[in-house]
Write a structure and sequence with these properties.
With 113 residues, this protein is mainly beta. It is built from one helix and eight strands.
Length: 113
């Protein structure tokens, strides 16, 4: 695949930033993203996100730290920019950058083509 073919296949909407509190969600066309937990351990703050594609019952649960990126076909690119863990005084929050793609996941029967 040439560079221009790759760009057109993955081109989508411009990146959008979202500041989401724990238990909050982002709803974009084709995607529902929930901030399930915001925690901290010896390695620092992290979040547990739950992702669901539109028209799908499958929920993807991922643990991410600031600076990590998830690229998933049919969802796009999600980068965690910052995580503030929950504390007794406040609910945690996550700053995300979401880049949706135009590409839809292929059905299993199409994967052999």
């Amino acid at each position: 695949m040439s560079h221009s073919d790759h760009r057109s296949a993955t081109a989508g909407t411009p990146p959008r930033r979202h500041l989401v509190q724990q238990a909050g969600q982002v709803i974009e066309p084709g995607l529902r993203l929930g901030v399930f937990r915001t925690l901290a351990d010896d390695d620092g703050a992290f979040t547990v996100l739950r992702l669901r594609r539109e028209r799908s019952a499958e929920v993807l649960e991922v643990e991410m730290r600031a600076g990590t990126v998830l690229e998933e076909e049919g969802i796009g690119r999600i980068e965690v920019l910052e995580v503030v863990p929950s504390a007794a005084e406040h609910r945690g929050a996550v700053l995300l950058e979401v880049t949706r793609t135009n590409r839809e996941p292929q059905a299993e029967e199409d994967s052999g083509e």
